[in-house]
Amino acid sequence: MAPFLSRRDLQFQLYEVLDTAALPGRPRFAEHSREVYDDILGLAYNVADRYFANHAREADLNEPHVVDGKVKLVPAAEQAMKAFREAGFFSAHADEELGGLQLPNVVAQAMHAHFKAANIGTSSYPFLTIGNANLQRVFASPEQQQKYMLPLLEGRWFGTMALSEPHAGSGLADITTSATPRGDGTYAISGTKMWISAGEHELSENIIHLVLARIKGAPAGVRGISLFIVPRYRVQPDGSVGESNNVVLAGLNHKMGYRGTTNTLLNFGEGGETLGELIGEPGQGLRYMFHMMNGARIGVGMGAVMLGYAGYLASLEYARDRRQGRHASNKDAASPPVRIIEHADVRRLLLRQKSFVEGGLALGLYAAHLEDEIETGPGETRRDNELLLDLLTPIVKSWPSKYSQEALSDAIQVMGGAGYTRDYPVEMYYRDNRLNPIHEGTEGIQGNDLLGRKVTQSGGRGLQVLLERIQADLEASEGLEGLDEIRVAVVKALNQSGAALQTILGQAPELGPDLFLANANSALEMMGHTVIGWMWLRQAVTAAQRLPGARGDDADFYRGKLQAARFFATHELPKVRAHADLLASADRTTFDMQDAWF
Amino acid sequence: MAPFLSRRDLQFQLYEVLDTAALPGRPRFAEHSREVYDDILGLAYNVADRYFANHAREADLNEPHVVDGKVKLVPAAEQAMKAFREAGFFSAHADEELGGLQLPNVVAQAMHAHFKAANIGTSSYPFLTIGNANLQRVFASPEQQQKYMLPLLEGRWFGTMALSEPHAGSGLADITTSATPRGDGTYAISGTKMWISAGEHELSENIIHLVLARIKGAPAGVRGISLFIVPRYRVQPDGSVGESNNVVLAGLNHKMGYRGTTNTLLNFGEGGETLGELIGEPGQGLRYMFHMMNGARIGVGMGAVMLGYAGYLASLEYARDRRQGRHASNKDAASPPVRIIEHADVRRLLLRQKSFVEGGLALGLYAAHLEDEIETGPGETRRDNELLLDLLTPIVKSWPSKYSQEALSDAIQVMGGAGYTRDYPVEMYYRDNRLNPIHEGTEGIQGNDLLGRKVTQSGGRGLQVLLERIQADLEASEGLEGLDEIRVAVVKALNQSGAALQTILGQAPELGPDLFLANANSALEMMGHTVIGWMWLRQAVTAAQRLPGARGDDADFYRGKLQAARFFATHELPKVRAHADLLASADRTTFDMQDAWF
């Protein structure tokens, strides 16, 4: 069985491309050291390998189902939660005073990556819980934190985010779940929530739902939406779990993949009152939720990266072992077949995967690095880093979601019929990852967010920061050997993207908002590829700097990085132009299309 | 539930783009008329709707399994075979003297399309049977035809093609199944065959395997491969089914999709002798098999088209019904949400699907039309048509396999979370179609076939014919309204592709065969898109000619064709350039990559 993750690449990304080893120089991380980080990642590998990877297929084949009114998961999921809890991973990122390790975001993200790669379905339970706790840490009152957040950080209770409703998925502005003040500071919550992951299970003593709802009399649209803490079981004054809060499971969704994560339809206020506590101010619910959502979007992107990465490693192992066919130049039918990794087209499929998943990993960790810069880095670059992270978030979410799916298709293709069977994991990864372009904001939403909001936000400062950072890395690449192709290709993609953005932004007033956004997907594609090209430039700079002093496996590793950068430069970045041209042309084809013509 | 197929589009392709109504003017089809064809297609729709579509999901959820030593399918599959048989569809294409209808290929293909769209898994049983009979019709002896082919045409017995072995899938040259002469004209077949679709079931009285094997002492490689008829049950002199022929089911493969089709590992000669009859001459097995294989490749392409088409129609229906969000220009939160088909990005996803599946359908039926031209058309164009069909076959097989998968991904995306659940069929189509880029020759094999063989075959005459045909359609497009974008885009793609081919072919001698073929996938992509662009040009010409005289739904239909052609021109054809540039550059990236660097 192939490993689910490349520990060597993770080290490269953290310590060679990023300067994670310097973080202990900051006050918040003063107790840390690279050794501490490595120990945690080593522990994560072992726990993920032993308690998560062990039941990925089992959970896929035995999806959650209801037995005697309770949602039943495979028993191994419970063991996994126990191991994750005992390792202290629920609170790894939290403050020391809350029992946490104060891990930097980049290390926490790298730690999480192991569980996503090993078993994406089971990993959802802790990650939704951690996201929930993160939101409470920022917006909930001290009393709420004491009551609801601490048990999450201990891993005793689990969390969800309950946003969508049957008639309102992407269009959250239209949610109708209501919150009626009960006069004692609490609210009676009533309504139906759809697509709630981890919405019901018996893995934890309690489930804390973060629920978007409208307080009676609130205005229409997003300004009328508030956020509530709604526990599955009411919490007693002493913090213990009490009676049912009347959150009723109305149904389970049956998905193509990601089957280990129970996905639910929940009725609030059925058969009795459902009590909720308001978080923060009324009408701020969507803003608070987006704090969690932005983290969740990076998490989705990283989940996609890790599924793609696991598929890549599985297909690589297969390609190194399986013998089939001969080189076109070999006419000797009696010669033995070659290992399929020797066929150029198989190497294309493998290099393509490598360029997608390692490029995606670099981006996901870069985003986490930006979070650290914002939280603990120098104050003078904080605002720039915030704007850059805002700009990158739709790409961090959507690019790996889309291109890991392509990588996984390539993994299946490398393995042929074998890859299409359930004897190997790649078909499962392919089914799992297809969710990622949908949840936490579809690709369409990400495109609109990028072109309609992030590109022009704060006078375009985020975009300016991006250009400056890329420029700095282009300068760092000069004089280094083997980098010409990637450098030239990045510059070209950057110029094409920049010119297209300038053109479409210049036309925006006359186009109007609908036509302006009609080709937002091309903006997402064009900027996504350009950003990943930049990520490859950064990796290539590091590899080129280290290659001369490297020997053996290390030298091969750096050569592989340079070749993958070259691949992305020659096979992928030239695709930017078609998207840039389309965007710049303000093409009306989809805008003009009529329902009746389909 | 959305329809699984657009009867209007099928009429358009057959009678407006192609001149199928003129075929009854040929002697072989003298008994036919357009009304006959329409009646057959109407019957096909009804049988497919009632007996195939009814159990597509049921067969997906209850894949074939072994009970008491027998492979058990869902009972509805048996009813489907009965209905297909009673409709006379097994022999629809066969000669009248064999009980057939002598249907033209293009009509037979259109008839088959219904079953592929309604239930791809169950449709495999009759289509493998028909392919088997087609091969026997050309290469088997009259005695063999009498004994083995007639029961297939009656639908009493079913057929398979047994090529691959556990160690030899794409690399058929390495098969080791042996055939030992028994002295009475028959052979004892011994070995193991892998990935045999419909290899074992109880749907028919007998199963006739077409088996590739080596006669003892035959040379290594493809020249030593012969083709044998191997029945599951031996056939008595009176044609009745006798004792077991010792073809033993060694295992079932468990696939991601296409689950209704049983897929088997078979041992020949286990527990007793397996008798086989040689077809034709020894050493010609692969050549004979490729006669069936070429038809099978068109069939795979059409299967992909129809899965994509069914997904498109399902997502279209959903998009017309589901309300979500508002236009960016609408700031009134109290206004009702719009139907999602009104969002430009959803229309992009729908137009993209439409352009892929209707483009693919046009190509699949054009290929069938070429088969008719070859078999019953004017003698002076026969050779040209043969070469053109040879050239197009790798594209007919691989382009829809790849782009229907993209279309199905778009269908899921349109439907969001709903599309990802088993409550709707699109996730199933997505799993089903992922097989198509693998079986009957992987995408890698199609690329090598196209660039390494078909492009230069007969002094490049096939390519020349392609250029002439496209040129003729470009001329036909002149002066017609609304065709500028598609015409200009096709010319551009054609010029880019042509120049890239010329460049790489010119360098072939110095590159050597391995490096020459290293970027064959780009040739496949570039030519595939160009050919589909041509198919859209043809459809657009017809639509533009008919639009002025059309009213109501018909006018909308033609406007939709023109808009989809425009979409392919503006959103897809510009992607040709990156592939053409890569091919022309004889890029060495994948060729130079080393195993150790991954």
TrEMBL record, chains A, B:
Membrane-spanning segments: 296-314
Coiled coil ranges: none
Transmembrane helix listed as a keyword: yes
Domain Acetyl-CoA dehydrogenase-like C-terminal residue range list: 467-594
Keyword terms: FAD, Flavoprotein, Membrane, Oxidoreductase, Transmembrane, Transmembrane helix
Keyword ATP-binding on entry: no
Cross-referenced SUPFAM superfamilies: Acyl-CoA dehydrogenase C-terminal domain-like, Acyl-CoA dehydrogenase NM domain-like
Origin superkingdom: Bacteria
Domain Acyl-CoA oxidase/dehydrogenase middle: 161-266
InterPro entries noted in UniProt: Acyl-CoA_dh-like_C_dom, Acyl-CoA_Oxase/DH_mid-dom, Acyl-CoA_Oxase/DH_mid-dom_sf, AcylCo_DH-like_C, AcylCo_DH/oxidase_C, AcylCoA_DH/ox_N, AcylCoA_DH/ox_N_sf, AcylCoA_DH/oxidase_NM_dom_sf
Acyl-CoA dehydrogenase/oxidase N-terminal domain location: 49-155
Cofactor(s) annotated in UniProt: FAD
Record-annotated Acyl-CoA dehydrogenase/oxidase C-terminal domain positions: 283-450
GO MF annotation list: flavin adenine dinucleotide binding; oxidoreductase activity, acting on the CH-CH group of donors
Family assignment from sequence similarity: Belongs to the acyl-CoA dehydrogenase family.
Protein name: Acyl-CoA dehydrogenase
Organism: Deinococcus aerius
Top-level taxonomy: Bacteria, Thermotogati, Deinococcota, Deinococci, Deinococcales
